[in-house]
Design goal:
alpha+beta; binds 2-oxoglutaric acid; Jelly Rolls; dioxygenase; single chain; seven-stranded antiparallel sheet; PhyH; four-stranded antiparallel sheet; Phytyl_CoA_dOase-like
Amino acid sequence: MITQKDVEFYKDNGYLLVKGVFNQQEVEEMRKAVEGIIARAAQSKADYNSAWQGDFIPAEELKKLVLKGFHDVHYHDASFMRAVIHPHMTAVLTQIIGPNVQLHHSKMLVKPPENGAAFPMHQDYPYFPHEKHTMLAASVHLDHADEENGCLRVIPGSHRVGSLPHVGSYYLNHKEYPIKEGTPCVAEAGDVLFFNYLTIHGSETNRSSRTRRNVLFQYREASDFPVENTHFDWGMGLMVSGENPNFTKVKPEFKII
Ligand SMILES: O=C(O)CCC(=O)C(=O)O
């Protein structure tokens, strides 16, 4: 799926856009699954607005922004589980992470037209710090994403700077790191943007008349352990590729609620 040059690009820049990881039919299946989650959430009155809060946008504007965000999507619909372990996906992951790859968590991010919420620039590292920094996001595009509908933006090479102080541990100072200065990653439905959890990224408001739907899977190398007891999601540690050299070290505990 990718060449050695792509692997070098990822190592140098901290991100890689891979075209055509999923075909039209697979994209359609995931779009339907996203709609299903939104419909069931509305029915069960669990339909929260997950838009980021903070001073990175004027308060009046922030009030209008909407984000449909749900975690653990592979527990909502089987199409996402198929995507998590899709052979095209694992082909890329094993080249940029190594033979043994685990899922950390999954989520969906739907930015509705006109007022789809922005993401201030941030690193994912403070949310789930790990020892070896192998953690990366694979953001699966379910729509064409461009500057108008708030595509992902990255700061190439920023993963090499290490972890930076975040405002209230959520995002970077927006005056120092304005969203618009990130490199826009224009993508088609079916493309996947891979980026390391130290790579600075974010996205602008969706001001277009088009929805921007993404599903995001976080993966890590199987012997890369968390350094803090934070951010536990269902399915954390599922083997996506290879074998688990340390299975005795981790035992998930579940509580039925
Ligand atoms: O999808 C986006 O626009 C941003 C997602 C993001 O920054 C995140 O989930 O950490």
